[in-house]
């Protein structure tokens, strides 16, 4: 009967992913079916932690995050949890030998989001590592399926991809983060007077992350290359759209990529993959 609970737990994380992010859900669907549940389980864990710090405003978030952190480690050590999302996550952590340090770093960054803070350059870099880069490394553990040599060779590229995604999210959500959550992630940037030069400096940094990330995507196993490449192209398209609008517009509007554009990106990416042009 424990297999039924395993299935229910995996389904919980899958439902969370599909409800919160249609783009990532579609990207996951392009991965080999054998790794779908593992990636859903990582997303479910990350999403639940993010919800605690971003939306549970009328509840004791500090206390709840600490409970979540403690329950996460208990689940990993015991090999089971009564929380289906944590149960699914611990199965992945234990099966793919995901380093505890990656989980530590992620949860540390979530704790930083409990406070209103303006980040210095070093704090910004550290937050990016914990909130995004380590999540990319968790997924990379699954993609390489135990091949430590491949993991080590692709680690820096995976970090760059996670960083690029997160920084694009910061630009896309800059208005809501600043006005609703009191967060200003970009160092040395005054968002009350967000200037074109400040925006350009941020964009140059992101462009380098995207460039470096693509080098790694080209060397991923066939089981994950297409799905990761499509996610890369989605975010690159969003980034290009953000680049095309003035800085003051970002403080009044959340930029989006229409579904029709996403479908075109998917079709084009599939064709490039079939022709081995990635």
What does the secondary structure layout of this molecule look like, with pairings?
Layout lengths: L1 H19 L1 H8 L6 H20 L5 H18 L5 H13 L3 H13 L8 H24 L3 H25 L1 H7 L15 H22 L4 H22 L3 H4 L8 H16 L4
What does this structure look like?
With 278 residues, this protein is mainly alpha-helical. Helices cover 76% and strands 0% of the residues. It has 13 helices and no strands. Helix 8 runs antiparallel to helix 10, helix 8 packs parallel to helix 11 and helix 10 packs antiparallel against helix 11. It is globular and about 60 Å long. It folds into two domains: 96 residues, Farnesyl Diphosphate Synthase; 162 residues, Farnesyl Diphosphate Synthase, CATH 1.10.600.10.
Measured between the Cα atoms of the first and last residue, the distance is: 44 Å
The class by helix and strand makeup works out as: mainly alpha
Strand percentage lies at under 5%
Q: What's the CATH H-level superfamily name of the largest domain?
A: Farnesyl Diphosphate Synthase
Helical content class: over 70%
Name a few traits of the molecule.
278 residues; mainly alpha; Farnesyl Diphosphate Synthase; 2 domains; 13 helices; globular
Short description:
This protein is 76% helix and 0% strand. The chain has helices spanning 2-20, 22-29, 36-55, 61-78, 84-96, 100-112, 121-144, 148-172, 174-180, 196-217, 222-243, 247-250, 259-274.
